[in-house]
Specification:
It is built from 16 helices and two strands. With 324 residues, the protein is an all-alpha fold. It comes from Argiope bruennichi (Wasp spider).
């Protein structure tokens, strides 16, 4: 940040001060360029889910893309009472109870929506498949929106950031307040705040932590250097170097409360432990969390807010990567 502010230059031009390190600038630009390509796909996914939010299509198994292995919310609720169902011989016979037992290992409707509707995942690399035109359209829209935000440089982008940087916090607070009022939410919060100290002895935990910090802050990607280049020369860069990581960590903690309050609710609804419903990567944002949202009253509204938040966060990040 200090280099960018001092020279008012990007990650490549700034190394005029020491040409031997110019390769670092090219490395930053290349890494950011590669990430730009696939990061916009995530924005396209968010746009597609926004479109599907009006009907919450991932909440049922009565769709063309669903398989016989699909388990809906109603099926899961029936599984919770499977013992009592077994005793009610006047309502259900043994074969029906057996069918319900078998569904315990089946795939949820939200997972099938993600795999077979959104991604249309093939059976393997030997079966590539064709273009997924809905995703092609949302990807095109995503690139057009990024272009419109950046077409006049930092002037238009700076105005857009006022919305894309503040709206996610408003949604996070709304989701947190709603999440804390749900049954089982505090079980999720307790799971989130209960450390497993023995994990600190494993290299994987430290590796994951380092990856998260470097990825979320954007260190060594050129993002901080590029943004700092627009600061005034007399700006307090020392203060900024403290504020940025503190806000980053605070946002991560807040998002954790939001996610685990709803995961605790989902665990309560399905009769599972919180550990069994926790996921990571795209599966958390596009499978587990949508599944939990679909169980809320007025679920289309909450689904729209959540995925629009993902869209604004992605658009914010994509602009910075493209500026590099």
């Amino acid at each position: 940040m200090s280099l960018g502010q001092f020279g008012s230059l990007g990650p490549i031009a700034i190394w005029k001060i020491s040409p031997i390190f110019k390769g670092l600038g090219f490395g930053m630009a290349i890494v950011s360029g590669v990430v730009c390509v696939y990061y916009n796909v995530i924005i396209a996914w968010a746009l597609y889910y926004i479109y599907q939010s009006y009907s919450v299509s991932w909440s049922s198994c009565e769709n063309a893309w669903n398989t016989p292995n699909c388990v809906s919310q109603d099926d899961m609720k029936m599984q919770l009472n499977i013992t009592s169902v077994a005793n009610m011989t006047n309502l259900y016979n043994s074969s029906e109870v057996s069918r319900l037992s078998d569904s315990l290992s089946k795939m949820t409707s939200s997972e099938e929506f993600w795999l077979f509707k959104v991604l249309k995942q093939s059976t393997g690399i030997e079966s590539i498949g064709g273009f997924q035109w809905p995703l092609v359209l949302t990807l095109l829209i995503a690139w057009i929106l990024v272009f419109m935000c950046m077409m006049r440089g930092i002037k238009t982008s700076g105005k857009v950031v006022y919305v894309t940087a503040t709206f996610p916090y408003c949604v996070l607070l709304c989701l947190l307040i709603r999440g804390l009022t749900l049954p089982g939410a505090w079980n999720g919060i307790s799971f989130y705040l209960s450390p497993q100290w023995e994990k600190l002895l494993t290299f994987k935990v430290w590796g994951d932590a380092a990856t998260q910090i470097f990825y979320s802050v954007g260190a060594a990607w050129g993002a901080l250097l590029t943004m700092a280049s627009y600061n005034k020369f007399s700006n307090n860069v020392y203060r900024d170097s403290l504020v940025v990581p503190l806000i980053n960590c605070g946002t991560s903690v807040l998002a954790g409360f939001v996610v685990f309050s709803l995961l605790g609710f989902m665990a309560e609804e399905t009769g599972k432990s919180v550990a069994d419903v926790v996921s990571e990567g795209p599966g958390l944002a596009f499978v587990v969390y949508p599944e939990a949202i679909s169980r809320l009253p007025v679920s289309p509204v909450w689904a729209f807010l959540f995925f629009f938040m993902l869209f604004t966060v992605g658009l914010d990040t994509q602009q910075i990567l493209c500026f590099i």
